[in-house]
Hints:
With 352 residues, chain A is an alpha+beta fold. Chain A is built from 11 helices and 12 strands. In chain A, strands 2-3-4-5-1-8-10-9 form an 8-stranded antiparallel sheet. Chain A has a two-stranded antiparallel sheet with strand order 6-7. In chain A, strands 11-12 form a two-stranded antiparallel sheet. In chain A, helix 2 packs across helix 10, helix 6 crosses helix 7 and helix 7 (254-268) crosses helix 8. In chain A, 46% of the residues are buried.
Amino acid sequence: MNERMPVPGPEAVYEDAFGITLSSRIRLARNLRGVPFPDKASPAVRQDVVARVRAAAQEPLPDQRLLAACTPLERQQLFEDHLISHALLEGRPDSAVCLSLDCQRSAMVNEEDHLRIQALRPGLALRVAWADADALDDALERRLDYAFSAALGFLTSCPSNVGTGMRASVLMHLPALVLMGEMDPIVNGLGKIGLAVRGRWGEGTAALGHMFQISNQLTLGVPESRTIEDLEAIVKEVAGHEQNARERLRRERRTFAEDLAARAAGILGAARLMTAQEALERLSELRLGIALGLVRGIGMPQVDRLLREVQPAHLQAAVGRNLTAAERDMERAKRLRGELRRPPKPLAKRIP
Amino acid sequence: MNERMPVPGPEAVYEDAFGITLSSRIRLARNLRGVPFPDKASPAVRQDVVARVRAAAQEPLPDQRLLAACTPLERQQLFEDHLISHALLEGRPDSAVCLSLDCQRSAMVNEEDHLRIQALRPGLALRVAWADADALDDALERRLDYAFSAALGFLTSCPSNVGTGMRASVLMHLPALVLMGEMDPIVNGLGKIGLAVRGRWGEGTAALGHMFQISNQLTLGVPESRTIEDLEAIVKEVAGHEQNARERLRRERRTFAEDLAARAAGILGAARLMTAQEALERLSELRLGIALGLVRGIGMPQVDRLLREVQPAHLQAAVGRNLTAAERDMERAKRLRGELRRPPKPLAKRIP
């Protein structure tokens, strides 16, 4: 286990001019030898784990925060950026998160396991993320004694993670497959080959804004390199299906697609109230329109920035204070209007 | 019955700066003495009825059309303008419509009754419409012998019309009552005092675009003047409730109302596909925003013109040819976009 893979070159980043693959993530579950898992540990033991991990992570992950000391807004923001899990949102005592300065590498302490190492990269970059996570894992292992069994691999709180303790996942934007009614068989097919398909924030979240997270389930008996290679191949295949569906959408249902994107832009540029969920949906439709070449005057990076900024905690952080749900919906609409008031125009003349 | 009311002066037209009452209509059911009702009459008899009515109506209603000779599009357009009923849409043989040149007065021949006289006026103008219908009725009666019973009044094919044969109705735009959830008790209350509340195209149609047609049910034992006075009083009361609901909407739920109107304008100015039903709904929301003073750059007359022009047959008549449903949705969206591309702006600054 934990065998070395060559450090990937730039060619390892999949060329995705269509913005289908949004981000790649590697997560490694690790525990300290001879210490009870967080749920079974006393506060004193959990505090000791935090102290040991913080000391070990000082150099690679210098931005260290005790979650109980964070404001709810800070925790929410960490959650929206995929840096802590739903389980840590409440600010559980003796849990922490340690971050690299660019937030691409991180570790949760005393979540389900003592350590949840994470590497996050934009686009389809599983090998790069793996190299990041692996290097961070090595650095921490030099100072920490991991619970490891020669027969099983890394030991984890939940048996489903025993072995590599690795979950590799890719967040994909698959609007055309959804709109063409082709997503359900793909989700079923992926399930049959041992992959999980979830919403943007993982387990139990719906696939809002046509965003799906695809990840491995198996951690036992499969080396990391194999898991990553397999997932990468599958993600490329799904991206190919999405590209194909987009092409058919553009050729066969062009007016429908134009209508969808133009309405999204019209609503984003006009609304006075907008929930986070609706913003996600309308921005997703606009993003599809851009990918199809049906919208001009706005680019995908702007939409991707907005997708991040319209989230509740990011919105409040930008305003600098807590807002009620109604105030958030007004503020979100105002910011979106500010950027989209002049609705983007269709690129080409409508087909007669 | 059929007693005279003084010809109304301009003061009889209710001042409605808020556009709550859209139009007023009087319909009189009449039949020829000794002739079987249309459903029981032979083709020869029905043809004779058409000939006699056409001759009698020559002067007041010179635009006379046999419905079987009209194209389906022409009939649909007559229906959309409330000049023929749903029953005549199919182009039943030996049925006709006779119209004054301004279409404010008309008569259907061989619908359910031999004659259905109609007077139609914009706004709340029941007395004016009654004067129109009554004068037309008198003119026709000079040349036609009506089936009339001293005990019952005018005899009609359906017993529910016996007596005056009159239906008086007012089309109202009641978006605030609907949005504030106050419409259901009003509909129930109106039902209890013998009034019917229907959608824009009468019996069996839903109240699309927040438009409701309120009419009398009773035709036996109540003189026309009383029916009209009662209906007028009730309509003014309902209009008062709507005005009250609009004021509360503007004061207490201003952002919600602004959002509704701004979204409607945004969608109308952007969409590439728009069904007739959605156009009605979005134009209704925009109309409310104008009435509330929340939208500028567009006036209520423009919206009312669009409400008429976006109807399927009007749309095809403007283009000059038959269109498929998909073509209509594209053409409708294109015309709406042409007039609303630059979205109307809110009148006042948003309340902080």
